[in-house]
Amino acid sequence: MIKKVFPPVHPEGYGFAFLFFVATVILWHISVYLGFLGLVLTVWCLCFFRNPERVTPDDENLIICPADGVVQQITTVAPPAVMEMGDEPCMRISIFMNVFNVHINRSPVSGILTKIFYHPGKFLNASLDKASEHNERQSFVVKTKTGMKVGFVQIAGLIARRIRCDVKEGDTLLAGERFGLIRFGSRVDVYLPKTITPLVIEGQITVAGETILADIKRKEKTYKGVVR
Questions:
Q1: To the nearest whole percent, how much of the chain has pLDDT over 70?
Q2: CB within 10 Å: which end of the chain, N or C, has fewer?
Q3: Virtual CA dihedral for 63, 69, 72, 76, nearest 10 degrees?
Q4: How far apart are alpha carbons 88 and 179 in whole angstroms?
Q5: Domain-by-domain residue ranges, the chain?
Q6: Is 139 among the residues known to form the active site?
Q7: DSSP character string of 71-104
């Protein structure tokens, strides 16, 4: 129960929280109001780096969402050449993370991490479509035991200034396993074969490691959302 109310904090967050706390002490001596603002920002910093446990569905046919946030776009595009996934168009599902989401990213499938590629770039608003091509980003490709390749890309945003990767090429990843984080507000794109039917819709809220993006064996038409 305690972990649900106060989830663990990613180790990288403690350094930032300490800096926020020191600034809070200084501001408190200047003004109580400024000190209170600093305290709020310190708590926010700890919340930003929260690292909760997630329960991932145990089914090799499922594609799991890699990020907390909202499904911004589902479209068909050619995969980035550096991923070496071929020239056939893929389905791209884009998940946008704001500064209040958990920013720990998780692998969408189980398999061998065959490719990691870092792209230096700009820091445009991650909600813009051109962010996929122009922003600083890190691309990954996982090959499942059936031979299917799934690509996913961490994209830095307007505020995000660093992408952290905790894995390396050749590692074996499990669906839902943590592989890195982005700070502070960003996006993750997932590239899947276009024949797969997505089980999410644009505007849907997602939970990393738990929300199911797609089932590779499901052939029904794409879902439509109803606002209630």
A1: 82
A2: C
A3: -20
A4: 27
A5: 2-48, 62-215
A6: no
A7: EEEEEEEPPPGGG---SS-EEEEEEEE-TTS--E
Determine if the pTM surpasses 0.85.
no
Residues 61, 66, 72: CA angle, nearest 5 degrees: 105
Q: How far apart are CA 174 and CA 145, in angstroms?
A: 12
Task: With a cut of 90, say whether residue 39 has pLDDT above it.
Answer: no
Q: Which two tokens stand for residue 198?
A: 């997505």
Strands (E), 129-215: 137-143, 149-156, 162-165, 172-173, 178-183, 186-193, 205-206, 212-215
Query: Alpha-carbon dihedral of residues 221, 105, 20, 161, nearest 10 degrees?
Result: -90
CATH 2.70.70 fits 62-215, yes or no: yes
Catalytic residue among 94, 107, 110, 186: 186
- pLDDT for the residue 17: 75
How many Cα atoms within 13 Å fall on the side-chain side of residue 147? 0
70 neighbors 203 (Cβ within 8 angstroms): yes
Determine the Cα–Cα distance for residues 42 and 52; give it in Å rounded to an integer.
19
